[in-house]
Amino acid sequence: MERMKLPILQYEDQIVETVEKNPVVVIIGETGSGKSTQLSQILHRHGYTTSGVIAVTQPRRVAAVSVSRRVAQELGVQLGEEVGYAIRFEDRTSEKTRIKYLTDGVLLRESLSNPDLSQYSVIILDEAHERSLNTDILLGLMKRLIRLRATNLKVLITSATLDGEKVSRFFSQCPVLHVPGKLFPVEILYSPERAKNYVESALKTALDIHVKQPEGDVLIFMTGQDDIEKLVLKLEEKIQHLEQGSVMDAIILPLHGSLPPEMQIRVFGPPPPNCRRFIVATNIAETSLTVDGVVYVIDSGYVKQRQYNPSTGMYSLDVVQISKVQANQRAGRAGRTRPGKCHRLYPSIVYNDDFLDATIPEIQRSSLAGCVLYLKSLDISDIDILEFDYLDPPSAESLEDALRQLYLIEAIDEGGVITSLGRSMADLPLEPSLSRTLLEAKDLGCLPQALTVVAMLSAETSLLPARSSKNTDKKRKTPPSNLPDGSGYGDHIQLLQIYEHWDETFYSTEWVKEHNLQVRGMLFVKEVRKQLSQIMQKIATGPLDVQQGRRRKEIQTEYRNLRKALCVGNANQLAERMMRHNGYKTLGLKSQLVQVHPSSVLQPDEDGMLPNYVVFHELISTSRPYMRNVCSVEMRWVAPILQKIEKLDVSKLSGTSRPSKERTQEGDFSSQKEDKPITQAPEDPNSRIQAARERFLARRGNR
DNA sequence: GCCCGTTAA
């Protein structure tokens, strides 16, 4: 059997012995080592499932499902019995389950109702090198848990290329085991200089491979849909000319996230005989999807990355250089089935001197309001939010921004302590502004409508129709969509109307297609709405289903209440129109000049002016700073919020004026397995981050 | 006039 040869099995004794002796072990295993499927089974064989369940976290849903399926198969058991999985909307575990695969988000949720995670004897954090926001929080929680939990707990942190030393230091010098993978060698070829235009450069390299190199598929990493479409067109054109010669056939496949699923699946089908496939992809092919048969990789060296600026509250989507970890991950995609080649469209000096070692972790690129609320809602008195032990701490500025946001929506009081409202918000799997909107809507009697809007917003990117690439005619505008118009109030109301129409058709797939929306997205909204309704049902009265057959007057009242709830929930996302034109300035710590996104359905009045005050769901800087998903609100709702903003004192919010907390509880537990001191001086994280940030920003400015 | 990489509760 293939499995018998998995490299990790040769290390079984060593792994078990190390786990016996240490609460935390780091395991570095390259692709193909079998760590995701074997580690849990090894520990199961050695009795670790007698005292509890083995949990294995995955950053992605599909991985949790597919890996658990394979393990069940290998153990010859029914999936959902001894081996199961739990992901959002789907729990396939039972009382018999001893090995449980779950997304890290699900484990975080479980930790909310059971901070000790007492049902688990072992927790394996898999793919930790991806450094997802959730994984990073779990790392901090695990560090605390191994000291505090009364019953024995083993933690394994496994990853492909993670800097093992760094994690080991984080966990008091815990041991690091290396397990080799089963990758074939990949020859790295650098360009003499960095391409001025990486699309052109990729095109040349691809054609060169096609003409000169033996069979084998080519995977090309671009940054986004635009690049991909350009390159696909050019490749098709050039290869058609070539084919009159003697080269083999070729097909060219785009691959990115906004492609409908049936188009994504094409890359998994068997390739036609005697035909080379060119797959032009975003970083979706870096980790999320694995394409078989790739022998050549072309790496542009760039990626599109979303980042949050805590001082302005603005997201931006920038093309940035990849990290060394990412470059190696991309190269590795060429060596899965046989030796391969990776063409890097940049010189080795750029790789060595310019690329960051690792991608900046998500926790340092995101708004932390949700994360901070989550930590505050855990009933653990020894956690002070500003002192929470992160592998890579976020900046003080980012934490303060999060506290300010939470205070403005009354999730914490002026002393930084979580309110009962805040606790209710933490129960909802939503960003805080949306949770707050729901709770306010409950009091205002428009909860069914708010549930719909919030569910629609949380799926919004997967709703929009796929942009067609053929629309290159300059004069052709987007076809007039016959979607509802939000009655002039803006995008939130439009989202509500869209869903209500769909509900009227009894969730017809045809209706969705006719209106150029994505079926997958709408079905997701339906699931989210159902989940949120179930949670809200516990504290709300009255029906929460979509309301139908109301009178016009009732609907107007609902819209008004809904807009009011949105205003309360988005207290940190308000903007005021300029006097003489339709530009806006945001109301907050640092005012920004912004505009309503052109896709908005917000309507101007008879004089052509937009409303004086709006709330927005998101601030994003693309070609300009834009507010996306905008809704008109009234000044009288805004006024009290403005007063609050003026009086706000961040130093109180961060709890620095509070007396330090007692830590007696900690001493009781820690005596158990404290052979090494836990308190280690962090090696000056702030200066390290600062330096990384500066490099990062400088690079951004360069382009 | 815009147009988004990815993931998740």
From TrEMBL:
GO terms for cellular component: spliceosomal complex. Pfam families: DEAD (PF00270), HA2_C (PF21010), Helicase_C (PF00271), OB_NTP_bind (PF07717), WHD_HA2 (PF04408). Residues 16-180 form the Helicase ATP-binding domain. Keywords: ATP-binding, Helicase, Hydrolase, mRNA processing, mRNA splicing, Nucleotide-binding, Spliceosome. PROSITE patterns: DEAH_ATP_HELICASE, HELICASE_ATP_BIND_1, HELICASE_CTER. Its EC number is 3.6.4.13. Residues 659-677 have a biased composition (Basic and acidic residues). It comes from the Eukaryota. It catalyses: ATP + H2O = ADP + phosphate + H(+). GO terms for molecular function: ATP binding; hydrolase activity; RNA binding; RNA helicase activity. Signal peptide: none annotated. Residues 202-379 form the Helicase C-terminal domain. Residues 466-489, 652-703 are annotated as: Disordered. SMART domains: AAA, DEXDc, HA2, HELICc. InterPro entries: AAA+_ATPase, DEAD-box_helicase_OB_fold, DEAD/DEAH_box_helicase_dom, DNA/RNA_helicase_DEAH_CS, HA2_WH, Helicase-assoc_dom, Helicase_ATP-bd, Helicase_C-like. PANTHER family: ATP-DEPENDENT RNA HELICASE, PRE-MRNA-SPLICING FACTOR ATP-DEPENDENT RNA HELICASE DEAH4-RELATED. This is RNA helicase. It comes from Lithospermum erythrorhizon.
